[in-house]
Amino acid sequence: MRILVIDDEQSQRNLLAGYLTKQGHEVRQAGSGPEALALLEQRGAETAITDMRMPDMDGLTLLEQIKSRYPDMQVVVITAFATVENAVTAMKQGAADYLLKPVNLEQLTLILKKIEDSLNLVAENRYLKRKLESVESFPDMIGQSAAFQKTLADISQVCQSDTTVLIRGESGTGKELVARAIHSGSKRANGPFLAVNCAALPETLLESELFGYERGAFTGAQKRRIGRFELADRGSLFLDEIGDLSPTMQVKLLRVLETRSFERLGGSESIKVDIRLITATNRNLEKKIADGSFREDLFFRLNVVPINLPPLRERKDDILLLVDHFIKKFAAKSDKHIKGLTPEAKDILINYNWPGNIRELENVIERAVVLTRSDTIDKACLSGLTNAPVAVSFGGDLNLENLEKKAILEALRQSDGKIIEAAGLLGIHRNTLRLKIKHFGIEPIE
Ligand SMILES: Nc1ncnc2c1ncn2[C@@H]1O[C@H](COP(=O)(O)OP(=O)(O)OP(=O)(O)O)[C@@H](O)[C@H]1O
Ligand SMILES: [Mg+2]
């Protein structure tokens, strides 16, 4: 547990802190109430053990402050026999227990054990209650296709454990949504969920973002900054685009995973963290491992449980369901009533191959809802949704004249030799096309 010991007498603090550290707790000390509150703001604790009589702020006031800011925190008060009635008041104000001076360490151990048990029970109850509340466990995640049901089953499975998860899928397939679902379906749901995009920041910025830094760690570090690893304590940290991590950062991340601790930049204190790591990438990590740009040992650590998100074109059964979901969402937003789609519009949506996956579908529907002037979405609202042509093969010939001739022949073929239509496909005037046909000696098909 993280325990904060507050006493104005240093020897008393050291005694307790030394004992508790040996018992495996993470202990910090404060010499006064205000110092304790400042420390808690930086980094929380599950339990505070405080002396009652202190010069700056007495134990009762500190108890009250702690309880109003951190209602879940447990406070044990230590009191001299002479002021035992204070202990009674403290219990009435929400203290977990009290101890008489001189502190009996065995008794303290028992009290802390009781606190730990009750905290675990609270977490467990919240988790069970949430499970009951959400009969349909992931209401935001739409999809009935077999491929997607398999993904949902995988997600439910990992919610119950605390293992590292690697989410893989093309851009826009819902990686971040899944990461959030895993967090909120897990026992850590009441803790923080923090997301960091590893590709969005240059290495040095990413490093200080993740690890934080001490004042003076580098020019411009005027104040201590707490990093994401620390802020995500007791919660989940989502590292997106993990495949773009630089080699140095890969080593650093590996170390955190191995030791579950790290130091702030410019700091020497080793900070323990309790986080669940969820990572995602749309890169081919196996290929990156093969060419040496991604560490295999890190990959094994990250890939404890892999979740693969299928591209939308492989779960076409879900397209219309998703369309429905997004129509409702955007119709409500723009205060429109929309009944549905014309059969033609449905065909277009199903036949399109969605390179940008669900994100692209969401954008297309948002635009269509804005564009439509009636209560249905028709073909006209979906302009531009044509599949990219299969890549042109140059057959090794990069001579521009030859390519121009090939393009003209292909345009004439596609338009059955109709000059005006072929010129339209080529984006040139029909007279220009006639000249070129003559120049290349192409036989008219008309
Ligand atoms: N199954 C789903 N049901 C409903 N909406 C979804 C589903 N999956 C994804 N979305 C929506 O699609 C959009 C893209 O999802 P998300 O940002 O999670 O994708 P991503 O894989 O992280 O994309 P990128 O690689 O571009 O970062 C979001 O608005 C999300 O809410
Ligand atoms: Mg994303």
Could you walk me through the main structural features you see in this protein, from its secondary elements to its overall organization?
With 446 residues, the chain is an alpha/beta fold. The protein folds into four domains: 2-123, Rossmann fold (3-Layer(aba) Sandwich), CATH 3.40.50; 146-308, P-loop containing nucleotide triphosphate hydrolases (Rossmann fold); 313-382, Helicase, Ruva Protein, domain 3 (Orthogonal Bundle); 400-440, Arc Repressor Mutant, subunit A. Helix content is 47%, strand content 14%. It is built from 18 helices and 16 strands. The protein has helices at residues 10-22, 33-42, 59-69, 84-92, 105-133, 146-159, 175-184, 203-211, 228-231, 247-259, 285-290, 296-302, 319-333, 343-351, 357-371, 400-414, 419-426, 430-440, and strands spanning 2-6, 26-30, 47-51, 74-79, 97-100, 165-168, 193-197, 212-213, 225-226, 236-240, 261-262, 271-272, 276-281, 305-308, 340-341, 376-377. The protein has a five-stranded parallel sheet with strand order 2-1-3-4-5, with helices on both faces. The protein has a five-stranded parallel sheet with strand order 7-10-13-6-14. The radius of gyration is 32 Å and the shape is elongated. The N and C termini lie far apart (85 Å). 28% of the residues are buried. Bound molecules: adenosine-5'-triphosphate and magnesium ion. Residues 175-176, 240 line the site of magnesium ion.
User: CATH homologous superfamily of the largest domain, by name?
Assistant: P-loop containing nucleotide triphosphate hydrolases
Examine the secondary-structure arrangement and name the CATH architecture of the largest domain.
3-Layer(aba) Sandwich
Cα-atom radius of gyration: 32 Å
The strand count comes to 16
Shape: elongated
Euclidean distance between termini CA atoms? 85 Å
Name the ligand types: adenosine-5'-triphosphate, magnesium ion
- SS summary, helix count: 18
Helicity range of the residues? 40-55%
Structure class: alpha/beta
| Strands ordered across the widest β-sheet | 2-1-3-4-5
The description of the largest β-sheet is: 5 strands, parallel
- What is the third-level CATH name, the topology of the largest domain? Rossmann fold
Mean pLDDT: 89
Number of domains: 4
